[in-house]
Amino acid sequence: MTASHYAPDTLKRADVWRERALCRPEALIAEGVDGDLWFADKGDKKARDDAVAICWRCPVRIECREDTLAREGRSGPKFRHGIRAGLTESQRHSEYRRRAKAAKQGQAA
Question: Is the dihedral of CA 46, 69, 89, 93 positive or negative?
Answer without folding.
Answer: positive
